[in-house]
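This is your field. Pick holes in the following sequence-structure pair:
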Amino acid sequence: MNFVSIDFETANEKRHSPCAVGLVVANEHEIIDEYYSLINPMTDFRPFNTYIHGITEEDVADAPTFAELWPTLHAYLMNNLVVAHNASFDMSVIRNTLDYFKLPYPFMDYLCTVKISQRMWPELYNHKLNTLASHHGISFEHHHALEDARVAAKVFMKAMEEYPTSSMDIFLDECNLTKGKIYERGYMPPKTKRAKGSRKISFK
């Protein structure tokens, strides 16, 4: 089963100010594809944000805007399972930036690797990305969008490896997790449970 891991860095506190994005396509066995781009947010940078990720206005001066980059991102995200560490942040960046540029939402499900790691490794003193990387022996450069997306993907792969089931539905049910959803604007998802006998999403 393929999934997409995503991470954004932002220029300031506004959720419609992404200045970098990293995407990793993987399955339970290996990383298949990676994509990284700086983004010109067309807004100012806050010193605190630059201190965190090291990206400046000069770095993104010639970078594409989010609207210019969206067809590429959309192709990765549409109709896929997406994971992110602290997914509420990255999904709000997607929603707010799409709203800002008046672009349609993709149709996608997403999971949060913070919540997954809390269920899988409750003994850890916290479930930050650097803590999980250290726990699993993964070295990385924190607060680089591609590096963070790669580690989130590897954390999800570790969870799939260690959990004794081949069914994602069972994994989510037993871990008391739910998939978030982003729908195309104007589409209302049906408020019905999955029909008995319908196809499950499987790890294998």
In short: Strands lie at 3-10, 18-26, 31-38, 81-84, 108-112, 180-182.
